[in-house]
């Protein structure tokens, strides 16, 4: 027995309200917080019901590898927040990216991707897919003409991040979506840096949006998770079976943590974004910095596009020091409040040196082509007071 929820049109609510209420289902106990169903499998009242579940004629649960009540609540909530028909949760963000791509292609197909990607994403496109007979082409994402020129008769998907990891490039999602639509192919956008609150790729024409829920959605460094957000048809035609049979499943506990994270996502992202914006402005004229990268600053290469496409500049700031790796390391080692970590989107401010961490496997030439110098660091701004963050950065820059 379950308690029938009050009649509420989730679609009429603002995103902040959807992030708190969408997808909630209460058991007969009427719990306030979403229930955590830590179960591997399910029992059936009789053999006929069991058979009907496996045939798809009964809507109940079968096995938590591909369906679980807590996970379902997370999927419904993120779909509502994104304004999508459907979503599926995975164990990690990279499981979401890999499944999103693999579900659209087969041997003999072709994928076009922006070249400026998180290191693991680029591995999937550049090295993993070709192992299964799927060719890939990497392009300069800001150049619309190269997307068109890269198309082949067997192209099945476009893929990009915007803003990119770690250099915060912003790509014209609507324009690239139009190219994909005209070619009859699917378009996947990794929206991790912007979060569903600051950018809506599906409304801009993308077909599939992926998230590492590990980042802002959890937002407190606790659990791993990933999300694929799209239409019912794409889920059924491309992802349902592969998720069911291959098992990149999120645990119910992690899904519950992500549900709790979504409840506070809007207040965290708003504060972190405000901090990031102020820090970028304060640091822009610092004599130890060669450049600052922040999408909502007028000196960002795609500033006008960012203002048009995003609702705010986000929680990440790129800092390039004058000098090289030794200067960057001295700066990182002199920080006291901000921690060195390769994660991002956390309540705590974190900083990383991409050329020796997230992108260390690439050649110096490849990193240069991606805009990643030895003196570049990626700052994920947290919830601390902005004065404390600035003092920590300013003092550490003095040491560099």
Automatic annotation (TrEMBL):
It catalyses: O-succinyl-L-homoserine + hydrogen sulfide = L-homocysteine + succinate. GO terms for biological process: 'de novo' L-methionine biosynthetic process; homocysteine biosynthetic process; transsulfuration. Pfam families: Cys_Met_Meta_PP. Keywords: Amino-acid biosynthesis, Methionine biosynthesis, Pyridoxal phosphate, Transferase. GO terms for molecular function: carbon-sulfur lyase activity; pyridoxal phosphate binding; transferase activity, transferring alkyl or aryl (other than methyl) groups. Its EC number is 2.5.1.-. The modification N6-(pyridoxal phosphate)lysine is found at residue 215. SUPFAM superfamilies: PLP-dependent transferases. The keyword Coiled coil does not apply. Its cofactor is pyridoxal 5'-phosphate. Pathway: Amino-acid biosynthesis; L-methionine biosynthesis via de novo pathway; L-homocysteine from O-succinyl-L-homoserine: step 1/1. GO terms for cellular component: cytoplasm. Catalyzes the formation of L-homocysteine from O-succinyl-L-homoserine (OSHS) and hydrogen sulfide. Belongs to the trans-sulfuration enzymes family. MetZ subfamily. HAMAP family: MetZ. Homotetramer. NCBIfam families: O_suc_HS_sulf (TIGR01325), PRK08133.1 (NF006003). This is O-succinylhomoserine sulfhydrylase. It comes from Candidatus Raskinella chloraquaticus. The lineage of its organism: Bacteria, Pseudomonadati, Pseudomonadota, Alphaproteobacteria, Hyphomicrobiales.
């Amino acid at each position: 027995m379950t308690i029938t929820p009050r009649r509420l049109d989730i679609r009429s609510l603002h995103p902040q309200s959807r992030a708190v209420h969408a997808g909630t289902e209460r058991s007969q106990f009427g719990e306030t917080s979403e229930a955590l169903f830590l179960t591997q499998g399910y029992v059936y009242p009789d053999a006929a019901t069991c058979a009907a579940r496996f045939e798809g004629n009964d809507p109940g649960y079968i096995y938590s590898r591909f369906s679980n009540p807590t996970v379902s609540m997370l999927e419904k909530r993120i779909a509502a927040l994104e304004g999508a028909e459907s979503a599926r949760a995975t164990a990690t963000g990279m499981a979401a990216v890999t499944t999103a791509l693999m579900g659209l292609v087969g041997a003999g197909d072709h994928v076009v991707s922006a070249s400026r990607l998180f290191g693991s994403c680029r591995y999937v496109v550049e090295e993993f897919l070709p192992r299964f007979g799927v060719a890939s082409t990497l392009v300069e994402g800001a150049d619309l003409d190269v997307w068109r020129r890269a198309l082949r008769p067997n192209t099945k998907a476009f893929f990009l991040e915007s803003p990119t990891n770690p250099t915060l490039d912003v790509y014209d999602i609507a324009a690239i979506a139009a190219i994909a639509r005209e070619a009859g192919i699917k378009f996947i956008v990794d929206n991790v840096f912007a979060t569903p609150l600051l950018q809506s790729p599906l409304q801009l024409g993308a077909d599939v949006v992926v998230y590492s829920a590990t980042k802002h959605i959890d937002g407190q460094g606790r659990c791993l998770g990933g999300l694929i957000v799209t239409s019912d048809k794409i889920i059924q035609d491309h992802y349902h079976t592969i998720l069911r049979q291959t098992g990149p499943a999120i645990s119910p506990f992690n899904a519950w943590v992500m549900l709790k994270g979504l409840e506070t996502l809007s207040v965290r992202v708003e504060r972190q974004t405000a901090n990031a914006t102020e820090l970028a402005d304060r640091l822009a004229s610092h004599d130890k910095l060669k450049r600052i990268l922040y999408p909502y600053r007028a000196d960002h290469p795609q500033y006008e596009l960012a203002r048009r496409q995003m609702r705010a500049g986000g929680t990440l700031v790129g800092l390039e020091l004058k000098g090289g790796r030794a200067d960057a390391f001295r700066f990182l080692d002199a920080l006291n409040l901000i921690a060195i970590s390769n994660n991002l989107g956390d309540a705590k401010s974190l900083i990383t040196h991409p050329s020796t961490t997230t992108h260390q496997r690439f050649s110096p030439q490849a990193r240069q082509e991606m805009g990643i110098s030895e003196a570049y660091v990626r700052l994920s701004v947290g919830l601390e007071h902005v004065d404390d963050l600035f003092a920590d950065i300013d003092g550490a820059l003095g040491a560099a």
